[in-house]
Amino acid sequence: MGNSENWKGLFYGIAYGLACRAVFALEDFRNLSEPYEKPLFQTYGLMTMSFMFLVPFVIGLITAYYHDSVTSSRKIGVIAMPLISIVGFVGLSVFFGMEGVICALMALPIFLFMALLGGLVGVQVFERNRSKVHVLLWVILPFLLAPFENYFGLTDKIFSEHTTIVINSDDETVWGNITRVSRISESENNSSLFQVMGFPRPIEAELDTVAVGGIRKAIFARGLFFTERVTQMNPLKVLAFSIEADPNSIPPKALDEHVLVGGKYFDVLEGKYEIKRISSDKIILHLTSQFRLSTRFNFYSGLWSKLIMSDIQKNILEIIKKRSETHKIKATANTV
Could you tell me the pTM of the whole model? Predict the structure, then answer.
């Protein structure tokens, strides 16, 4: 193969990824003149094993099909070409607005791994059989398997994330910063992972009544807000609340479709603050959340969800800590 021929795998891999992304995003194909008829063909969307795992694997195979003669002498090509194809595919998807940054970053690690695996397998397979029919079978495999996934349905799993922080202040001050969170400036928010990924930053929280049944409104940037109903309240010790999110009320650009709170795949169910006093001027603040995932790969999406929820909670606790300790310093100064 000439050098120009060797690069075909890279471009074909990117093109295949973009084509699959466009087709899977449609979810089904209907006769437009008969919209109520049964779909002619269904892929069941991007949140399928076929798209998330098989498509990048095939991208790796495609690069191997065109690069096996190069990789036999330059092993770096086995690794480089599948990975470059994935970066190109994901990068173009984000650039043209086909995919949001949040979902792209969450999908990237598994895409890279599966493409690399496909490249390694492809070099071995195509060394023995370079039939174009063989390649075609791999190319159409994700579309053949996607409809069968529907028979297994989505799997609901409840996850819990728990974070703590030590605060050099009294429980009354911390309690006040939990029940009502005054407006948070941009400087108070840390440069956290969830903000880098594009999640809206918290702005403030309002509580109408500090009692069971009270309504707490948590407000985030980009018009995002959640209604929280107090389910447990023990003054200076425990504040727990259920979280209610209406996907239809969330602004279109606030969150990616596949991480929409209250949506088909993800929902935050409840949160709970607990104050444990160590001494008169030191406490441990606990924050626990429960959330639901409904995907066919909760083993992977759960890792990301727990990481992001932990990051969000740590950011909130840091804000409460700074405010509580600053209040204590001011109060001490005023008594001197």
Answer: 0.82
Q: What is the CATH number of domain 155-335?
A: 3.30.530.20
235's tokens:
């003054």
Instruction: Determine contact, residues 182/204, Cβ cutoff 8 Å.
Output: yes
What pLDDT sits at residue 157?
92
Tens digits of per-residue pLDDT, 61-94?
999 888 755 444 456 767 788 999 999 999 999 9
- Whole-number Å distance between alpha carbons of 67 and 49: 26
Question: Contact, 198 vs 102, CB < 8 A?
Answer: yes
At what angle are helices 101-128 and 298-335 packed, to 10 degrees?
150
Domain ranges of the chain: 3-149, 155-335
* Antiparallel, parallel or unpaired: β 155-167 and 282-295: antiparallel
**pLDDT in the model for residue 14:** 96
The SS3 assignment for 151 reads coil
Q: Which residues contact 37 (CB under 8 A, 6 or more apart)?
A: 30, 31
Which residue type sits at 130? R
Structure tokens at 324: 């509580």
Tell which phi-psi region holds residue 318, choosing left (phi > 0), alpha (psi between -120 and 50) or beta: alpha
The residue that leads in pLDDT, 42 or 287, is: 287
